[in-house]
Amino acid sequence: MAEHPLPTLKRGDENESVVRLQQQLAAAGFALALAANGDFDAATATAVADFQASRGLTVDGICGPHTWAALEEANWSLGDRNLYLSQPMLRGDDVAELQLRLGSMGFDAGRVDGIFGPNTAGAVREFQLNSGLEADAVSGAATTNALIRMSARVTPATVAAVRERAKLQRAPRRLTEQHIMIATQGSMAALAGELARGLRRSGATVSESGDWSETERADEANRLSVDVYMELLPSPVDECRVAYFAVEGFVSPGGQRLAAILGQRLPAALGVEHADVKGMRLPILRHTRMTAVQCLLGAPGLVQARLSPLARAIEGGLARWATQPA
Predict the structure, then answer these.
(1) How far is 99 from 113, CA to CA, in rounded Å?
(2) Residue 54 is inside which H or E element, if any?
(3) pLDDT band at 3 (very low <50, low <70, confident <90, very high)
(4) CATH number of the domain residue 258 falls in
(5) 137: left (phi > 0), else alpha (psi -120 to 50), else beta?
(6) 125: Cβ–Cβ under 8 A, 6 or more apart, which residues?
(7) What is the average pLDDT value for the chain, to the nearest integer?
(8) Where are the beta strands (DSSP E) in 249-325?
């Protein structure tokens, strides 16, 4: 029988799920002095926020599905279990460390995303062939021990980042040759529509997704092999944040470049002082396989009032990115 999803927890909650949360926070190295008493108090909220910041998640001190998933993945260390290609795919900090160690030695395990996919399986097999081990693409005890021994000094960069940058540099340098997916929520539909029309007039191919789940949006973007995934979302306050995928050992070069360009253009279009541009490990950025950014643009009323200049600023940013994507 499938396990019921854990509830979203916030300050003031008192139940057994809070006990589990407090125990997992302590196991992850946060709030070690926190009593697992089931009371979601100020100290628990601070610990949740600190954990979210450490994992590149949105920092709100509320334990929702993304935070629960990150806590579960933080439980695993390399060597705790055999790692192999499965369905659903194995996820965890142990997978991320495996990818980082393989990538730092020149074996392309793909992005350091903590998801054991086909690229990671291929890199494990290639490492096994080069090490005289059984090439079964399973990171068991023998493979893990050999990998740790041979990669004692893990470098902070992996071959995946180098190859992704090279791919971007070889790509067409015109907006007319880009396929862009725009994802949004109901309150941002008008902005998404105006942006899509402008991009199509410029010759770009545009796909749109409405109120789909994150998994559906990521799967569709990957299926279509779009060049850019752009998510436009409201935020509770009039602030602007542009996020791209970044973890230890991997920074999306295309995402970082596009986020930096948008971070320069969006404030003037929105009438705010600045945009917060940051590398994050948000699930949508982690699961998409292309240049991807998530833009928090402020309250819907602000976006509606600035609709045309905002759409033009984003379109101009994409056009500039296309000429120099990394």
Answers:
(1) 8
(2) helix 42-54
(3) low
(4) 3.40.630.40
(5) left
(6) 135, 136, 137
(7) 92
(8) 250-251, 276-280, 291-296
Contact 95, 286 (CB under 8 A): no
The pTM is what? 0.88
Q: Is 308 found in the same domain as 180?
A: yes
φ, ψ for residue 182 (rounded to 5)? -110, 120
Task: Name beta bridge partners: 243.
Answer: 278, 294
The pLDDT assigned to 153 comes to: 62
- 139-191 pLDDT, tens digit per residue, is 999 999 999 998 766 565 678 888 888 889 888 889 999 999 999 988 899 99
CA atoms within 13 A on the CB side of 233: 15
Q: 22 lies in which domain range?
A: 16-74
**CATH number, domain containing residue 68:** 1.10.101.10
Report d(CA 85, CA 68) in Å as an integer.
23
Distance CA 3, CA 15 (A): 18
Q: Give dist(CA 121, CA 107) in Å, integer.
A: 11
Residue whose entry in the numeric block shows the structure tokens 């973890």: 247
Q: How far is CA 223 from CA 13, 220, 227, 289, in A?
A: 40, 5, 12, 10
DSSP state of 188: G
Distance (Å) of CA 202 to CA 153, 174, 177, 179, 264: 48, 10, 10, 12, 22
The DSSP secondary-structure symbol of 252 reads -
Average pLDDT estimate for 200-221: 92
* pLDDT for residue 1 is more than 50: no
Helix (H) or strand (E) holding 179: strand 179-184
Q: How far apart are CA 78 and CA 94, in angstroms?
A: 4
List the structure tokens of 101.
């160690």
185 and 261 in a single domain? The answer is yes
Clarify whether residues 56 and 192 are in a common domain: no
Please indicate, yes or no, if residue 83 is contained in any of the structural domains: no
Count up the domains in the chain and report the number. 3
Q: What residue has token string 């790692």?
A: 83
